[in-house]
# Entry
Amino acid sequence: MKLKSANKTRPQISLTPLIDVVFILLIFFMLVTKMTTYQSLALYLSQMNDQTSALKPKKEIEITLVTTGKLMYQQRDYSLLSFSQSVPANTISKLNINIEFNVTAQQFVAVKETLLSYGYTDIEEWVMASQNEH
# Structure
C-alpha cells in the first residue's frame, strides 16, 4: 500500500528579524566595550659627546693562549682578569684566539667560558702547529 506523501514545502526564513538581532548585538557590544587609548612612555635621550666610544669603530684583535693558561697579547702575558680590564669586551668586535699546540682541551674550555662570562661574544679559535712540524 502506497502512502500519500504530503506536499513538501520549504519553510521560509525571514531575514528581517535576523538583521534586527545583529543590530541589537552590535549596539550592545559598542556600549559594553571599553575604548582605551594606548599609553606611551616618554623617552629622553641624552646628547652624545665626542668622547663616547659608541661611535668609535670596534677592532678585531688576536691573542694567544699559552700552556700556562695565560693570554699573550701584544708581546705581554695577561691573566684572564687583567686582559678583560685592559681590553674591555665592548671595544672589540671579534676575538681571535691562537691556541698553542700543548694547551689541553680543559684549559681552553675554561678560558673560553671565562671570556664569555666577561662579555666577549664573538670568539674564534685556531690551534697553532707544533714546533716540530715544518
